[in-house]
Amino acid sequence: MEFSLNTFSLVLFVSAIVSAIVAIPAYQRRKVPGATVMFWIAVALTFWSITYGIENLNPSLDWHKFWTLVQFISIPFIPVFWLIFAIQYTQQNKAPSLAKMAPLFIVPASAVLMAWTNELHHLFWSDMQTVMLSGVSMLSVEFGPYFNFYAIYSYTAIFIGIFFFSRHA
Description:
2 strands; 66% helix
């Protein structure tokens, strides 16, 4: 198997280190409103950065597909973590409990399931192939209808989180 460290992977590995560093004080201050969710955001970003960096170390399509699936263990949850962080940080004493916000995780959990079973239905990705970009083998995908639904849900969660912060500023 051919591995090649490249600038893109290196930047992702540095990003993972930065995210891991952010996770440490967030965990230490987990009693502060929003800190526990910030910890999980940092952990998910660390995981994503490491796995995306690993994905781009090898040019084979099977390698890229596998590591893309591994990335999708954490990616779908980041927008919901962001939204919950925004709610907890801006509404501190009146924020709903995590148990009440648990339904927000249904779409991300289903996105993980759809990604890992994609070969059965192709509703998440309809096609995947590798392309060379600045000497790095990258995955090029055509998104399926469920991915589009998941993307709309994710961007909505992000924008609502931004809205909460903008109202709080």
